[in-house]
Amino acid sequence: MVVAIDGPAGTGKSTIARFIAERSELYYVNSGNLYRAVALLALRQDIDPQHHEHVLQCAREHTIDFSAGKTLLDGQEADDELRTDEVDACVAQISRIPEVRDIVNAVLRKIASHTGIVVEGRDMTTVVFPDAEVKIFLDATIDARADRRFQQGTSRLSLEEIRQSIAERDHIDRTKPVGALVQSDDAVYLDTSDLTIQEVCARVMEIIQRHTY
């Protein structure tokens, strides 16, 4: 079984997908972390994200995987390094590279071929798993999303800078030549702007139950 969740940055996809996976006894996969892993590799090697061939070569020279809820780079856990302002600044550009998307999508499909998963990202319901049993599109206003990121306390940016960063990320995500963020026709739309995480999780569980029983 595949539960695919799409939506823009800051809608709570990761938190909700992790909770749903635990409740449903499914494997949780954060597709965005795989792109962040490629971004981290590029940063470590001082590669300009605009130089697509160099980024792609870097990605091909290393092993990127997901195991036991952890993102692995060459077999080593890398999650603690993936949520920095530096990675945030270049991950959207790197995720635009079609060949990088092919690498990440292959990892995701390999995982799903062995076990049931809850996976979240930008094109999970449209490109990677178009036949997923459950498809959900999470959304929220840009102000709500910026405030959530600011309250996390993991960024050195001001609230307005975070808002601008999210707006730029939205533009890149929605205009990608491959894997652009769009709502699948058969995905259930859920606006999380004024909902708590608990309320969103409850509604998502209801959606899953309606689609699977």
Automatic annotation (TrEMBL):
CDD domains cross-referenced by the UniProt entry: CMPK (cd02020)
Catalytic activities: dCMP + ATP = dCDP + ADP; CMP + ATP = CDP + ADP
GO CC entries: cytosol
GO annotation, biological process: nucleobase-containing small molecule interconversion; pyrimidine nucleotide metabolic process
Gene Ontology terms, MF aspect: ATP binding; CMP kinase activity; dCMP kinase activity
EC number: 2.7.4.25
Domain of life: Bacteria
InterPro entries, per the entry: Cytidylate_kin, Cytidylate_kinase_dom, P-loop_NTPase
Chain residues that bind ATP: G7, P8, A9, G10, T11, G12, K13, S14, T15
Cellular localisation: Cytoplasm
Segments forming domain Cytidylate kinase: 3-209
Keyword Glycoprotein: no
EC supergroup of this enzyme: transferase
Keywords on record: ATP-binding, Cytoplasm, Kinase, Nucleotide-binding, Transferase
Record-stated family: Belongs to the cytidylate kinase family. Type 1 subfamily.
Name of protein: Cytidylate kinase
Organism of this sequence: Spirochaeta africana (strain ATCC 700263 / DSM 8902 / Z-7692)
Lineage: Bacteria, Pseudomonadati, Spirochaetota, Spirochaetia, Spirochaetales
